[in-house]
Design brief:
two-stranded antiparallel sheet; 114 residues; single chain; 27% strand; alpha+beta
Length: 114
């Protein structure tokens, strides 16, 4: 029984961790292709609007697969098309958006990026 409780506790920690990646990607406007809990063969799959939600056989990790994360993509919502710092996306909804846009522009130019 203690093993089952330990596995469930570990799964809860994994879910919270992966939800952090998922939430950050969504808030930055990045398309998430798959949200998976576990490793190995798929035992349950649910298709959302643009994200596949997957539970895999072995409860030893998880993953959030984002568009353009592994390969380059022309999708404007791809991971590889977003700036290194997407914090300005969090602040578009308030009065600080111009300051954040300026910060991002200055950061990118200081680091030799477009």
């Amino acid at each position: 029984m203690q093993i089952v409780i330990a596995i469930l506790a570990f799964c809860v920690i994994i879910i919270i961790h992966e939800l952090g990646h998922f939430t950050a990607a969504k808030l930055c406007g990045i398309q998430v292709n798959e949200f998976a809990i576990g490793m190995g063969p798929v035992i349950l799959r649910k298709k959302g609007r643009e994200t596949n939600y997957v539970i895999r056989l072995l409860p030893i990790g998880g993953s959030v697969s984002m568009e353009g994360e592994q390969d380059s993509s022309d999708n404007p919502r791809a991971f590889n098309r977003k700036p290194d710092i997407c914090l300005h996306n969090f602040e578009y909804r308030n009065d600080h958006s111009k300051r954040c846009q300026r910060y991002t522009r200055d950061y990118k130019s200081a680091n030799g990026r477009r």
